[in-house]
Structure formats: C-alpha cells, structure tokens
Amino acid sequence: MELAYVGGKGLQVVSINPSRYATNVPVSASINIVLSTDIINVDEASLASAVKIRQANSGVDVPGEFSYKSRTITFIPSDYLSPGESYTVTVIANALIALDGSTMASNYISTFATSSSETPAIPTLLSPANYSMLGDIELKWLSESDLHTIQISKSNSFSTIVIESVAFSGNTFVPTELEPNQQYYWRVKGVSNDGSSGAWSETWTFYREDKTDEAGDQDEDTTEHFKVESVSPESQSSFVPVTLKNIVINYTKSLAEESLADDQIKIIARPIDDEYLEDVPYYTDFTVEVEGKSVKIALNQELEPTTEYRVHIGKNLIASVDGETISEDISWHFTTPLLPHYTTVELVRMDIGEFIQDVSDDYIHRVIHDVSKWADFIAERPVSENNISYYRCYVRYETDMRLLNTQILKQAVQSGEEVKLGDFQIAKKQVNPASITMATKSIKDNLDKCEKSLRGSKGKARPRVATKSETGYPYPLTQRRF
Questions:
Q1: Most confident segment among 17-26, 221-230, 263-272
Q2: Cβ contacts of residue 275 below 8 Å, gap of 6+?
Q3: DSSP category for residue 320
Q4: Residue at 132 is within a domain
Q5: Collapsing DSSP states into helix, strand and coil, what is residue 307?
Q6: What count of Cα atoms within 13 Å lies in the side-chain half-sphere of residue 125?
Q7: Do residues 448 and 351 share a domain?
Q8: Exposure of 31 by Cβ count < 10 A (0-12 exposed, 13-18 middle, 19+ buried)?
Q9: CATH number at residue 58
Q10: Are residue 465 and residue 356 in the same domain, yes or no?
Q11: What does each C-alpha distance from 228 to 102, 201, 224 come to in angstroms?
C-alpha cells in the first residue's frame, strides 16, 4: 500500500530552549531540546554522551542531570549558570538513535548568553493572610533574594508610605508604630547585591486591631468597626470553577440595602497565559444583592477558563446601617483553572474525484500538542494531482474551532520523490495503518466544525482564509513549522 505523508526527514533537532543566540538568559535556566522523533537510547549516560553543554570560553562541561520524555531532552544544571557567560549546546552527530534507526548526519550546535545581572524574582507573600484582623503584626514571605524592600501604606495605591524598609535582610519583618483600628496594605520586592530591584509582590491587606491589656484596662473600646471580614472566593485563590454562581463579601456590620448599586461594583476579567488574545480586560455581567452583613454578587454568565477576575468596589460606596463607610477601595482577584494552550489541529482532505470540488472521500488528520514539531499526515491510497487540500486550524480548549490559514498543496505525490514546498514536505512512505492513532471524539467534532467552515453555501468545499474579525487573532499567522 502506498501512503503519503507530510513531515520531516530523519532525526533532527526541531527546537531548543534557550533559543539559538538568545541573550539575557536567566542563570536559573534549564535546557530543553525537542527532536523530530522519539529515540531509543534515552538513559542518562547515553544522553550525557550525545549532548554537551559547555562554557564557550573555557570549554568546561556544565555539571547537571539529563532526562528524556516525549521527544524532549531536558538538562537541569546542578547549580546556577554564571552571569554574563556564553554557553554552547552541541548534539553530537550519530550519537542519538531514532526508533527507525536513523541518526543525525551532522552536529547540531546552539549558543546562548546569560544575563550579566540577574533580576530578583518576585517574592511570595505568606502571612498574615490577606484581609486578616489581628493585633500583633509579623509579615512573612518567600523569596530567592537576600535583600528586600518592604512598604506599608494606608492606601492600596501606596500614595502615602507609612513604613518603608530598604535593603532589609531576611524574610520576616515586624512593623512598629502602626495605629490601631486601621486598615493597612503591604508589599515586598527583592533587591540584588548590586542594588537593582525586582518587581513588587502582590499587595495584601490586614486590619490592625486595638489589643489593649484586658486585665489592666477596664475601659477597653469594644466598638465594632465597619470593615471587610472575608471574601469568597478568597483573594489570589486559583482553580476557581467556571461554574461559580456567586461572589460574596462579608462585613462586620449589617449593611444599608440602598447603599450599593450594580454599577458601583466592577468585575474585570483578563485572559492570562495566552499569547494569541489581546491583553484587554472585559467586564462580567452580574447583579448585586445585599443580605444582612453580606453583599452577594450573582454572576449571570459562566466564567471563562484561564482568566484572572478582579473584583473592585470604590471607597465610601458601601455603608452600614448606622451610616459608617470604608474609606479605602476594596479590591481582590482570583483565577479560574488553567487549561492547555491552543492545540493545533491539522486537517488533510483527500479528494479522489477529478476536481477539487467533488465530494471528499478521505479525511486524514492528526493532533499536534507542540506546534514546533513536525506532523505526519497519512492517506490510505495514492492521490491525484491537485487533489490534496491542506488546512490549518486552531482549537481553543478543544471547544471553539478557529480557522486561521489555508494552503493548497498543488503537487502530485505519485512520483515517489520527496518534494519540498516552503516549510512543508510531501513524500511516500509505507506505514502500518494500525499504528495510526485516532483522535478523540471531541477533536473529531471540532474537525467537523472546521470542515463546515471551509464549505460554501451549497456545501461544496472551498478553501478560504478567515479575516482578523472572524478569528479575533493576529492575521495572518504563517510562520509556524509543523
């Protein structure tokens, strides 16, 4: 049986991270090498013999550990790389053996340079928990830096700084001279030994209570102050289900029902970890109910996955039944589950009829989870000239099909010779049909949607390119290699 496929020829390096000639690479970086196919000799000793990571100037090998998984070789250095140093990565010819027995015909060499001054990482705040109410204050955080700058303010904009400690050594800070019965905000950033600063941490808040000596002070103020007691979902919580129905803010006093309108609360949604979506926030639809000491925000739509939601209420907008208000903005955020990045779906339609618009007889596809790798497309019979249609589609979380690009491969495959068309190659190959992995039902359904988008009003196949307004993504996107 003659089979056609699109793909790379033999074993080769598809991509490397840090990329070739990269600069300002973090000294904490690991190295990942993606191959075009799986290999046989995956034990650490074989990988160490086949891949050499060295300082470019001295030629000294970098100590570390190799591992292998799914066509990817990973090297983790035993210690941080040296700042301001050049490094070479060499994959030695014929040292790695593919499953089909092929090897690399020549050395693959890549270089990169580390940053001369490492930017401090962003600290992670630990305690007190956000929105805590306590008398004794001790701030704690996690950080890779030895030195830090700590700021404490009565405003979440830090327009007026109450306490600032610069070049503070350690990960625990006990502030003094804080007023009782007052809301405070705090944040931390790392400072390197050369004095350069990293980015600020998240901003957390706490309420300092008046903790006078109960035994010695009979005139202790027992007045209940109006403030936020808790929020749900909690601030900075992750994996909040997209089916969330209500956001709740609990206060220490009963609320005046007429004190808050829907338009005084903002819920701003911003997609995260997605290079294809513009970084523009959008607003969530909801209604507000005041119940006793709580504000319940009823969501009128399902949340989006992989999205940060920030709830914001302006100062003095919510009042207690006795007329007391909160003089600072209330703001916190949470994120929904992080789903996989966009999955590239490849669709090859084989039209056996004389003309391209005839009814298609074969639909061949394969899902690629790493768009930097080559894809193999397999047809079960020889195909006539001009009767191969190649479509490139994107599946958003395997539910929303977006057509981005269409390319007709106008080349016969019956000659048996490998033909290169831009970034794509066509050839003949004998493949056992039983080895072809079928896509999941969800992917099949999306391919059906994609195919429908490629057909005209009469149901006949017609290649076309979606416009930017149709896709919502940057257009055109033509530089990816499969």
A1: 17-26
A2: none
A3: B
A4: yes
A5: strand
A6: 23
A7: yes
A8: buried
A9: 2.60.40.1220
A10: yes
A11: 66, 22, 12
What one-character DSSP code corresponds to residue 61?
Answer: B
CB distance 329 to 262 below 8 Å: no
Residue 375 has pLDDT above 60, yes or no: no
Tell me the residue range of the domain where 262 lies: 228-335
**Helix and strand numbers, DSSP H then E, in the chain:** 3, 31
Domain membership of residue 2 (yes or no) is: no
Cβ atoms of 246 and 297 closer than 8 Å? yes
Q: Which two tokens stand for residue 18?
A: 């840090």
**Strand residues in 292-399 grouped as ranges (E):** 294-299, 307-313, 330-335, 343-350, 362-368, 388-396
288-to-283, 298, 313, 398 alpha-carbon distances in Å = 15, 6, 12, 33
Are both 348 and 459 inside the same structural domain?
Answer: yes
Asked if residue 219 belongs to a domain, the reply is no
One-letter amino acid of 213: D
Distance CA 308, CA 329 (A): 19
Check whether residue 38 and residue 145 sit in a common domain: no
CA-wise closest residue to 298 among 244, 251, 255 = 244
Report pLDDT digits (tens) over 314-371: 777 778 888 888 777 788 888 887 654 333 334 444 443 333 333 333 444 443 333 3
Return the SS3 of 158. coil
Q: What is the pLDDT of residues 80-119, one digit of tens each?
A: 888 889 999 999 999 999 888 889 989 999 999 987 766 7
- Token couple for 355: 């003309």
Distance CA(179)–CA(169), nearest Å, equals 25
- 138: helix, strand or coil: coil
Q: Is the peptide bond before 18 cis (omega within 30 degrees of 0)?
A: yes
Longest Cα–Cα distance of the chain, Å, equals 100
- C-alpha to C-alpha distance for 1 and 434, rounded to whole angstroms: 13
Domain final residue, candidates 145, 175, 208? 208
Mean pLDDT of all residues in 391-409: 29
As a whole number of angstroms, the distance between CA 450 and CA 453 comes to 5
Q: Residue 186 pLDDT more than 70?
A: yes
Distance between CA atoms of residues 468 and 462, nearest Å: 19
